[in-house]
Specification:
The complex is a heterodimer of chains A (317) and B (556). Chain A has 317 residues and is an all-alpha fold. Chain A contains 13 helices and no strands. Chain A has helices spanning 2-29, 34-39, 45-54, 61-73, 87-122, 127-141, 144-158, 174-208, 211-218, 223-261, 266-275, 279-307, 309-316. In chain A, α7 packs across α8 and α9 (211-218) packs across α10. The model of chain A has no long low-confidence stretch (mean pLDDT 84). Chain B has 556 residues and is of the alpha+beta class. Helices cover 32% and strands 21% of the residues of chain B. Chain B has a seven-stranded mixed β-sheet, with helices on both faces. In chain B, β6 (118-120) and β7 (125-129) form a beta hairpin. Chain B is globular. Chain B starts with a helix and ends with a strand. Mean pLDDT of chain B is 88; it is low at 1-44. The chains are: A mainly alpha (317), B alpha+beta (556). Chains A and B meet through α2, α3, α5, α7 and α10 of A and α2, α9 and α17 of B.
């Protein structure tokens, strides 16, 4: 078990290191010069050169990378090229928005997905299953930006049910914060809910046909009880895996959702920084997302072994 | 029909939010029908009269309160020396007063200086007196030394965006406690205009010593308001400054600049009352805001312009010696003139901007003090003559040209309208949509045949002409070079007499309209929405929304 986890931690560190290189190189391969972008209307050759020197953009790329790596390890991500704000401050102010959004979306998708999945299994071949399948099909096939626009048009512009944009910090006013987050969270949640629904349904069908379920039914346990205590519980392992793997998808989905709903979150920060070639911000943000992704995967692996001891044993072999 | 993108394509507007703009596009889809409805009216009829100020008048003023303004872009660092975002000026207006200011007519008036510069030594020395009894927000007294510190920083900081605005400035010194003397290598007429912009914002020397390069994190200047806080990409808050010399005329407690990049959402928030002032209203939202009894839309013509750059001789980047590009468009002034004549500017602003913007054919706006008949002249729209000229030039028709443009919907819409118009004259215009930052790079490196970008405009016409048209200048992306034009522009920059300068600019523009290194198309109007419960707001042609004197008033 310990060896298994250690191997996984080692792999994770290598992954993070490699991805930091890819991001660093990728940003510099993009056309578009941050110095030109930063110089604005006063983009004279002399000023562009001065800006390059000021921010060390004129040094060899590997020197820039080494500096970035050293500073990052010390927790110093530098300052935004555009606003001069420390990157750590930018992250501090935008990350909570995205985390709340992702958590809210996760909650919605798991609750909705599980309910639909169980319903689909319970009423196989009848209209509730078709309904649940329809929701899943829509969730999987409609892109979130299109769904977001439709939601804004119908629910905000036409019927004023939810605000079209804006954000209130959770700590400041939880009720209004949730009110502002509901529409984006719903849009973000739908695709994941569809995945959760399909997985729950599939694994419920398999579980409900297994011997121990038949035994439980034969002993006279009520169907509802068997469904939840035996069927759902044993199907959860698949669901946990899927949710874990999809968390990263939630963060990348947040980039689009936040832009559409004008939420000042991590995703919007990433997008704006890429557009203005704000190297330090993009590097730090992507590094952080990578670390988060890797940690979630680690946690999922660890969680497996807790839920299903057979994995623990297999890993130790 | 949102205009966001076209404002974006003026260089200072450092925003790239294609995804966010999608919302605006979707919300604006319904507005397309308005274009059809208004397309038969003339521009002036649709747009209505110019409103630069909403005076408080005799209405009772409520002391205190927090005003929220919807700001269309996130400003860059709040540092007058390095800032290059137009929107930083909006925020600085309430907390960083300048040596001079402009008024509604575009004239320069004293602000922290008490009189216009006095020139001597044939215009090579300028002195101006500094207002006394004034304190910065941190309590430091304003004096000539503080002004010298600021100007030296503007001139020498390596990444200063102000150095080029200070012309041939050589020495800066204090002659006593309340007078500053500047000397120049050659006479520099635009001095007062430069000091009426960011170069004239005096920074507290105490704060500069303490913050150094990070002055923009906690800017300290002289102003009715002082910096309170900034939440990145979300808002900037300023609060009333008790140290301000004229504090009795400041009515609000706080102003919150809330960053709302989507024009449709700014309009919605204005209607719902979430914000009381919003800049850069999209022409497609203006009609609906104007019909709202609780709102007023202020409008004033901008000094900036939009148009098409033609790469004549920029092979190795701006600032390198002109090297003729080998395309018919680059080589033949006649073909460029034909292209200019093939564009119906009046129809263009009607169809793309609902008639709220104005056609333009020159870098000098008609509301500038330097406008003349020559600078206001426009080439006729004549597609058949344009076609004749193309045939005379001996090129095979249709002549294919490629125009790069920003990849956001409104820029594309403008490009498509141009494409449709020039087809009649025998041009086959290919549109190449490009992400904004890459577009800027292509522009300065000369990687384009034609490219659609504009300029935000300056009070002094030197700022709208010299850097773009003088041989080898920093913004001369076409690498245009005409010795005669150079002579006129240099003479105009070195002369202080308005009439003489206006005449020189008129001559230069007439020549530029023959050479067409840049085909001027239209001029924005600064459209600002204001709730009627707020007064004391002004927007002058420099585009800055002035909130220093704003107050909540009883609606009358």
């Amino acid at each position: 078990m310990a060896r298994y986890l250690l191997t996984r931690v080692g792999q994770s560190i290598v992954t993070i290191f490699l991805s930091s290189m890819v991001v660093f190189a990728g940003m510099r391969l993009l056309p578009g010069d941050p110095a030109v972008s930063l110089a604005g209307e006063e983009a004279t050759p002399a000023r562009i050169a001065a800006i390059r020197a000021e921010y060390g953009l004129d040094r060899p790329v590997w020197v820039q990378y080494a500096t970035f790596l050293r500073n990052s390890l010390h927790g110093d991500f530098g300052r935004s090229l555009r606003t001069g704000t420390p990157v750590s401050e930018l992250i501090r102010s935008t990350l909570p928005v995205t985390l709340w959004l992702a958590a809210y979306a996760l909650l919605i998708s798991v609750v909705v997905g599980l309910i639909l999945g169980v319903v689909a299994e319970r009423f196989r071949g009848r209209w509730p299953e078709w309904g649940a399948n329809l929701v899943a099909m829509v969730g999987l096939s409609v892109p979130s930006f299109w769904l977001g626009l439709l939601a804004i048009l119908f629910l905000s512009v036409d019927h004023h049910v939810f605000p079209a944009s804006g954000y209130v910090p959770m700590m400041q006013d939880p009720a209004r914060s949730l009110y502002h987050l509901t529409l984006p969270a719903l849009v973000l949640a739908l695709a994941l809910a569809a995945v959760v629904m399909r997985q729950t349904r599939a694994s419920m069908i398999a579980t409900m046909q297994s011997d121990y379920v038949r035994t439980a039914r034969a002993k006279g346990l009520r169907r509802g009880r068997v469904l939840v205590r035996y069927g759902l519980r044993n199907s959860l392992i698949v669901v946990v895996t899927i949710v874990g793997l999809q968390l990263g998808g939630l963060i990348s989905g947040a980039v689009v959702t936040e832009s559409i709903f004008g939420l000042p979150g991590f995703g919007k920060l990433t997008l704006n920084s890429v557009f203005s070639r704000d190297y330090p911000v993009v590097q730090a943000v992507v590094l952080l997302i990578t670390v988060g992704y890797v940690l979630i995967n680690l946690a999922v692996d660890a969680l497996y072994s807790v839920i299903n001891p057979r994995i623990r044993v297999a890993g130790a072999v | 029909m949102e205009s966001l993108g076209v404002e974006m394509s003026s260089r200072p507007v450092r925003r790239r939010l294609a995804a966010a703009g999608v919302v605006g596009l979707a919300l604006a889809l319904s507005a397309c029908s308005q274009t059809q409805a208004t397309s038969n009216k003339s521009s002036a009829e649709v747009a209505g009269k110019v409103i630069t100020t909403i005076p408080i008048g005799s209405r009772p003023v409520q002391q205190g309160g927090t005003l929220t303004m919807g700001l269309s872009a996130d400003p860059d660092a709040l540092d007058p020396t390095t800032s290059s975002s137009l929107y930083t000026r909006y925020v600085m207006e309430t907390m960083c007063q300048k040596l001079y200011d402009t008024n509604a007519d575009g004239q320069i008036v004293p602000m922290l200086a008490t009189a216009l510069p006095t020139l001597s030594d044939g215009g090579k020395t300028a002195t101006f007196p500094i207002k006394q009894g004034v304190k910065f927000a941190d309590g430091t007294p304003l004096n000539a030394d503080a002004v010298v510190t600021t100007l030296k920083r503007d001139l020498t900081k390596p990444d200063s965006a102000r150095a080029s605005e200070l012309g041939t400035l050589k020495t800066i010194s204090a002659t006593g406690n309340d007078e500053v003397r500047l000397t120049f290598g050659s006479p520099f007429a635009p001095l007062a205009a430069s000091l009426a912009d960011r170069a004239g914002m005096v920074m507290s020397p105490t704060a500069l010593a303490k913050e150094g390069d990070h002055f923009g994190d906690h800017p300290v200047c002289v102003g009715p308001f002082k910096f309170a806080s900034r939440v990145p990409a979300t808002s900037i808050t300023v609060e009333k400054d008790p140290n301000y010399y004229d504090a009795k005329d400041v009515h609000l407690d706080k102003i919150v600049y809330k960053i709302i990049t989507d024009p449709a959402i700014r309009a919605t928030d204005l209607k719902s009352g979430d914000v009381q002032v919003a800049d850069t209203i999209s022409p497609s939202d203006v009609n609906s805001l104007r019909s709202d009894k609780a709102l007023t839309v202020m409008q004033v013509g901008s000094y900036g312009y939009q148009g098409i750059q033609i790469n004549i001789a920029n092979q190795h980047g701006v600032g390198t010696p002109p090297l003729q590009i080998d395309t018919p468009l680059a080589k033949s002034a006649q073909i460029r003139e034909a292209l200019s004549m093939a564009i119906d500017r009046k129809q263009l602003v009607k169809t793309v901007f609902d008639g709220y913007y104005d056609p333009a054919c020159s870098p000098i706006a008609p509301n500038s003090a330097y406008a003349t008949a020559a600078s206001n002249a426009c080439p006729p729209y004549d597609p058949s003559k344009a076609k004749q000229m193309l045939e005379q030039a001996g090129v095979k028709l249709p002549l294919q040209i490629t125009m790069q443009t920003s990849n956001i919907p409104s820029s594309l819409q403008l490009a498509q309208a141009i494409q449709a118009q020039v087809r009649a004259a025998g041009f086959d215009l290919k549109i190449e949509p490009i992400e904004y930052t890459t577009l800027l790079q292509n522009d300065s490196q000369g990687k384009f045949e034609a490219l659609q970008l504009g300029w935000s405009g300056r009070v002094d016409p030197n700022g709208d002409t010299y850097n773009f048209l003088f041989t080898g200048s920093g913004n001369n992306y076409s690498n245009y070079s005409n010795k005669q034009v150079d002579t006129w522009l240099a003479a105009a920059a070195a002369t202080t007499d308005t009439a003489t300068r206006a005449d020189l600019y008129g001559k230069a523009i007439a020549q530029v309209q023959k050479d067409n290194p840049y085909i001027y198309l239209y001029r924005n109007r600064n459209l600002t929405g204001v709730a009627n419960k707020v007064a004391g707001v002004s927007v002058y042609p420099d585009g800055v929304v002035r909130l220093s004197g704003a107050a909540f008033v009883a609606q009358g």
